[in-house]
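Posting this for the archive.
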Amino acid sequence: MPDTGARNVDRLLNQQILPVLSQMILQLLVNNPVTGDMSIDVNGNGEPSVES
């Protein structure tokens, strides 16, 4: 039986969304040290974007 409800949300976050965001944030920090706020958004193509 496939995961449903909260288990599905947890799996989606932990296996698909958080690893991508973590990698993007680490790349941003290496290239541009953050001195203020950081913003996570979804661009026009439906892809996540991270800016400082």
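Strands lie at 39-42, 48-51. Residues 5-51 form one domain.
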